[in-house]
UniProtKB/TrEMBL annotation:
SUPFAM superfamilies: MFS general substrate transporter. This is MFS transporter. InterPro entries: MFS, MFS_dom, MFS_trans_sf. It is a multi-pass membrane protein. Its main location: membrane. Residues 1-146 form the Major facilitator superfamily (MFS) profile domain. The chain crosses the membrane at residues 12-34, 46-68, 89-107, 119-142. One of its GO terms (cellular component) is plasma membrane. It comes from the Bacteria. Keywords: Cell membrane, Membrane, Transmembrane, Transmembrane helix, Transport.
Length: 153
């Protein structure tokens, strides 16, 4: 995906790739929220995880590319550091938030598979909702660029 995402970004533009990636991420997270207590990894978790991973790649790579290409050449390292730090802080805050949602709804009930699954389902649903909000924000705020102006990395 590291090779494919920049080529797709060059062909379709970063905004389209970020929105598409976030939509796939939301779909994968929504799919994970449907996991059953008696489900299997191969049928319930793996396909949804692959969809979410594809979405993350399609969203994050163009985001990083846009952030770095928007900075002056001498500030490329600074821009990269800020973006990567934002990813790390966002991940930590996101994990804390979904944990705060999941635990009261049953994710701490290790002896009760139904309650445990309900808690995780709520967390994945909340994460999917955040991805949908990110789609709306991206669509409203990111300016489209002509695909031929975006350089493939």
């Amino acid at each position: 995906m590291v090779v494919l995402a920049p080529r797709l970004t060059a062909a379709f533009g970063p905004k389209a790739m970020i929105v598409t990636g976030l939509a796939l991420l939301a779909a994968g997270l929504g799919w994970l929220s449907l996991v059953r207590p008696d489900g299997t990894f191969a049928a319930d978790v793996l396909p949804a995880s692959l969809v979410a991973a594809l979405g993350m790649s399609l969203a994050f790579i163009p985001s990083l590319q846009m952030a770095i290409s928007s900075a002056a050449p001498e500030q490329g390292g600074l821009a990269s550091g800020i973006v990567n730090t934002s990813y790390q802080i966002g991940s930590a805050l996101g994990l804390a938030t979904v944990t705060a949602i999941a635990v009261p709804l049953g994710a701490d009930e290790l002896g009760d598979p139904v309650a445990l699954t309900d808690g995780y389902s709520a967390a994945f649903t909340a994460a999917a909702a955040v991805a949908v909000l990110a789609i709306i924000t991206t669509a409203a705020t990111v300016r489209s660029r002509k695909p031929d102006l975006v350089k493939a990395a």
